[in-house]
Specification:
Chain lengths: 394, 661
């Protein structure tokens, strides 16, 4: 990190010197460059005359014109020279160079930059004994095993949420389909397939994904994920009421500590706030293609996936379990960076770090959470209570 | 570390730009050499830091450092290196970085090559240049910062918009920006002259190389962009009057007017006020172009940034620079002394004619581009002003301009002789009439006016040659003398002729493409043969293929002409893995100056494909003509008179040192 501060200082010095140098150096002043231009114009006229491009009369007229300019310029130059004082305003230069430039740049940079935060190039991330690397290697191992033994339904089931989270939606769909085919249909598997199809369809409940959710509900009418996404389908079709009904029913049927409650509640709130100011839904034809479609974006799907991964992870071998939590933590951190007001998210992040046995990171996250939530005393209190529970008192 | 140093370098550049905006101009007002002397070194240092910053961002792209948000959002580790690099400017933040990089480099060039400028003018020019730099650096750092970081780098990036993953994109925006930003120098010269109140023939000579440079890059950039749209977007056309295309075309039209009016100002010290206005307008339109693309006001394939908050910032920049400079112009221009007089029929008159038509054409394009926007914001009604509007306004304005084009260089300064000029053009007129008749006689199909348009293009080309022949006194003196005279011609004369020939070639290409192209939209089965224009295509095979970060379905055609095999073509539909976005990869087969163009349609099955096929005669002239124009510009730029003053400076320096010794 020393090299960072050395480079930092050198750059600041160069910038300051750029302002200071003119003080030390004599100015190179081109005297009367305009006269040079006019003299050149005169020789050009001579050349044109010689080659017969212009007649003698034209040449003479042009020459007089240029000479007139030459005289005017010479007059003006001498007037300007006498007006020039040549005063050297050293104090302005010193103030600017030594104080202004460094102070302004360092101040601004510390305001908007993250000094000495290291680069994280792909090569370093792959080479380092980081959690990601283990995780990526693990995924590759599973993939390799599946390539040899594609009938391992359990393997496909393991990979699917990983694919979903890393944005490989088509692969996630394939994995879910394979798991379904090899391990037999259950409500959970059908719902998972529907979710993958939802993600692959750019967060739209496509007819295929809808069909999957419906099959899930046919197998188990209380399957929460399928119920939730069918609500999303209604919402995306513009049937706000139907969506709300479905979600309310889902909440009513869910136990009070169900991990998905938060997601569903939030969707309901969003639904209410979205439908309030504008009673009539925008007509599909007038919609901008780049405007996000109404309805939950991938965050919600990711949250659902995460909840589910959490429950699944408990059944996995321990090392896999940890990797999954780590991957989840990463997703969570990014989400919180974008939206710092999510107190539940922060609580989960802190807890995850504790679960992973990294108290240092847990404390850092707690500190970031306090900063992010500083403006909201209620949430801050909840966070602090929670921290106490975890033995992080603060 | 590099990312953060790049960030800091950008902040330093801002601090230096602030210094450069104030000290030199203060020095110019108070006649203080030392303050004025800061302009050049500070401009160089600013360029250095912006370059460091840009290099740091590029490095983050090359190493796939996804802890930089901008890299995560626009890159992918599996992308080929060239698209990692071009991805730097394939997004809003990065393209703004490119903008200020070019701005800073141009500033440094003025600092280096401006040794022959009067000290006050140079100080003022660099100060004005720094105003622009300050505005854009503030814009980048506070609304579009490419150096924002994630604490923990995500696993994989989101990839660059697939239609932008193309060699065309690697080259097109830098060229376009070199043009846009190049006009900022002309703008700085204009504003500096207005502040200083000094505007004479010498000013025009100093500003013209910059205007020419900007014009050359803009011409290349537009041609490149047109070619990119032609083959990458798979639309099969070369110009769509798309708002973004118009945004780059308007500064070109005004810039073209500027390089012509600067000639008049240089030679006769006339049109001063007008030339300054053109310099201001050329840059204003460049800024407008930036605004139109960046703010997302326009829906266009190019608008990869859609963010109204930034739009407001750019709107402020626009108001400040366009409004400010035009106010300054309105205030100072009346105090400028008018220059030489001339008769309507003269070289000056011809150039004024050129300026009027180019400006009118630009106004037509401006109306066609902005009217739908204004209408939409006022009434909410969406209309689209398409090719018909431009064809009925722009094209009629171009025809008199093209007819007059060969006459201009043949007219004398001050008072010309139209009859004599016509006599000198008789040969050119004869050839173009002959060509028109031949085209009528031998080429079938196409609109009735097409042969006339070909005749016009030939007239423009022959007229440019007639100018050279006239200057060489061809046939009037022995051939040997003529040849030596040709060799002795100033480069600027060659520049004019070559650029005008280029224009004629472009017209030829446009006419050939629009009048005689054949188009076919059809479903083709495996092994089936279709005939388009002069070619027969057989669908040879359909197969999938994997690229580094995409998968594609390829249709291979075997092409024959009059029974002879002329090659194979592979048109493809690509799907990019990360964004799951399809692109169309049209196949092109160049045959002479014509091209055969195959664009795959939406459906590809195992045994059949929908295709659009065009046979486009002469189409390559559209872009090659632009290249010829650019060569003309380059010749003109290398003319010896732009190098004038350099030897004088050396002597002057010695003179200046004497009293000190």
């Amino acid at each position: 990190m020393l090299s960072f501060w050395v480079a930092f200082a050198v750059m600041t010095g160069v910038a300051a010197l750029a302002v200071l140098v003119p003080l030390l150096r004599r100015q190179e002043v081109a005297t009367a460059p305009d006269l040079a231009v006019y003299r050149d114009q005169l020789t050009e006229i001579e050349r044109d005359l010689k080659s017969g491009l212009i007649s003698a009369g034209e040449g003479e007229a042009a020459r007089i014109e240029v000479k007139r300019r030459l005289l005017a310029a010479a007059d003006r130059n001498s007037a300007e020279d006498s007006a020039r004082r040549g005063r050297r305003n050293r104090w302005a230069l010193i103030a600017c160079g030594l104080v202004g430039v460094p102070l302004l740049s360092i101040g601004t940079y510390f305001l908007i930059g993250v000094p000495d935060m290291p680069d994280q190039p792909l090569a370093a991330r792959q080479g380092a004994p980081a959690d990601h690397q283990n995780f990526a290697a693990l995924v590759q191992q599973v993939e390799a095993r599946l390539a040899q033994n594609p009938d391992d339904g359990r393997g496909w089931e393991l990979l699917a949420p990983v694919y979903l989270r890393s944005g490989r939606y088509q692969d996630a769909v394939k994995a879910r389909q394979n798991a379904l085919r090899l391990l037999g249909a259950t409500a959970q598997r059908e719902a998972d397939l529907g979710e993958a199809l939802f993600a692959a369809g750019a967060d739209i409940v496509t007819p295929e994904s809808r069909a999957a959710f419906e099959r899930a509900l046919a197998l188990d009418p209380s399957q929460p994920k399928a119920a939730y996404f069918l609500g999303v389908a209604e919402q995306q079709a513009g049937n706000v009421e139907a969506a709300a009904t479905r979600w309310r029913a889902l909440l009513a049927a869910s136990p009070p500590d169900a991990p998905w409650r938060g997601v569903v509640e939030q969707s309901l709130v969003e639904l209410a706030s979205a439908s309030q100011p504008e009673a009539s839904k925008p007509h599909p034809d007038t919609q901008q293609p780049d405007k996000p479609l109404p309805g939950p974006r991938v965050e919600n799907a990711a949250r659902l996936a995460e909840k589910q991964a959490e429950t699944q992870a408990s059944e996995l071998p321990p090392e896999m379990h940890l990797s999954m939590i780590r991957a989840m933590v990463e997703v969570l951190e990014q989400k919180l960076k974008a939206d710092g007001g999510d107190v539940e998210g922060w609580m989960r992040l802190v807890r995850s770090h504790m679960v992973l046995g990294d108290a240092e990171k847990a404390k850092t996250s707690l500190a970031s959470a306090r900063t992010a939530l500083a403006s909201d005393p209620d949430k801050l209190k909840r966070l602090d209570d929670y921290a106490k529970e975890l033995g992080l008192g603060g | 570390m590099t990312a953060e140093l790049g960030h800091y370098a950008l902040v330093l550049a801002l601090a230096l730009a602030l210094v450069q905006s104030t000290l030199p101009i203060w020095g110019a007002r108070t006649g203080d050499d030392a303050l004025m002397g800061t302009a050049a070194p500070v401009a160089l240092a600013q360029a250095l830091f912006v370059s460091i910053s840009f290099a740091a961002l590029t490095w983050a792209y090359v190493t796939s450092d996804f802890s930089v948000v901008n890299v995560y959002e626009n890159s992918h580790s599996a992308k080929p290196l060239i698209y990692k690099i071009s991805g730097v400017w394939g997004n809003h933040e990065g393209s703004m970085m490119l903008w200020v990089l070019i701005l800073a480099v141009f500033g440094a060039l003025v600092a280096i090559f401006g040794k022959n400028l009067p000290q006050t003018l140079k100080a003022n020019v660099l100060a004005v240049q720094a105003w622009v730099a300050t505005a854009f650096l503030l814009f980048i750092l506070f609304t579009s910062n490419p150096f924002l970081r994630y604490e923990q780098a995500p696993m994989e990036g989101r990839d660059l918009n697939p239609i932008l993953q193309d060699v065309g994109l690697a080259i097109h925006p830098p060229l376009l920006y070199l043009g846009y930003v190049g006009f900022s120098i002309c703008f700085a010269f204009a504003v500096a002259a207005l502040i200083d109140g000094r505007l004479d023939a010498a000013w025009a000579r100093w500003v013209r190389p910059w205007a020419l440079t900007a014009w050359i890059f803009l011409t290349l950039g537009i041609a490149m962009g047109s070619y990119w749209a032609y083959y990458e977007l798979g639309w099969g056309g070369w110009w769509f009057w798309d708002p973004v295309e118009n945004a780059s075309f308007m500064p070109w039209l005004i810039g073209t007017a500027l390089i012509h009016s600067a000639i008049v100002m240089e030679k006769r010290e006339a049109l001063k006020v007008w030339t300054v206005l053109l310099a201001i307008l050329a840059f204003s339109l460049s800024l407008l172009g930036t605004f139109l693309v960046r703010s997302g006001v326009l829906t266009s394939v190019h608008s990869f940034a859609t963010d109204p908050a930034r739009g407001v910032f750019i709107l402020l920049i626009l108001m400040l620079f366009i409004g400010g400079s035009l106010s300054l112009y309105a205030w100072r221009a009346p105090t400028l002394k008018q220059g030489g007089l001339f008769a309507p029929i003269s070289r000056e008159g011809a150039l004024v004619f050129n300026n009027l038509f180019l400006s009118a054409a630009c106004a037509a394009v401006l109306v066609g581009t902005l009217y739908p926007l204004a209408l939409e914001s006022l009434t909410g009604e969406k209309i689209s002003v398409g090719a018909p509007f431009f064809n009925s306004t722009f094209v009629p304005l171009m025809i008199p301009l093209l007819i007059a084009m060969p006459f201009g260089p043949l007219l004398a300064w001050k008072r010309g002789d139209l009859f004599a000029a016509t006599q000198r053009l008789l040969f050119a007129i004869g050839v173009s009439v002959l060509v028109t008749v031949l085209v009528y006689a031998f080429v079938q199909g196409g609109p009735l006016l097409a042969p006339l348009a070909v005749g016009l293009a030939v007239f423009v080309i022959m007229g440019a040659l007639a100018d050279i022949a006239e200057r060489a006194a061809l046939w009037r003196v022995p051939l040997k003398v003529s040849l030596s005279r040709v060799r002795g011609l100033p480069r600027s004369a060659w520049g004019t002729a070559v650029a005008h020939i280029g224009m004629g070639l472009v017209i030829l290409g446009i006419v050939g493409e629009t009048a005689w192209k054949t188009e076919l939209v059809q479903r083709v089965k495996l092994g089936e043969t279709i005939t388009v224009g002069r070619y027969a295509l057989t669908l040879d095979s359909l197969f999938p293929r994997n690229g580094p970060n995409y998968q594609e379905g390829v249709a291979r055609f075997v092409v024959t002409r009059d029974g002879a095999n002329v090659g194979t073509m592979e048109a493809a539909k690509r799907v990019f893995t990360a964004r799951r976005m399809p692109t169309t990869e049209a196949a092109l087969l160049t045959h002479g100056l014509s091209q055969l163009y195959v664009a795959p349609g939406e459906t590809i099955t195992e045994s059949a494909i929908d295709v659009r096929v065009y046979d486009k005669p002469l189409v390559l002239w559209i872009w090659l003509g632009c290249v010829v124009m650019v060569i003309g510009g380059g010749l003109s730029l290398s003319d010896r008179r732009f190098r004038v003053g350099a030897p004088r400076t050396a002597r002057a320096r010695k003179a200046a040192l004497q009293p000190a010794a």
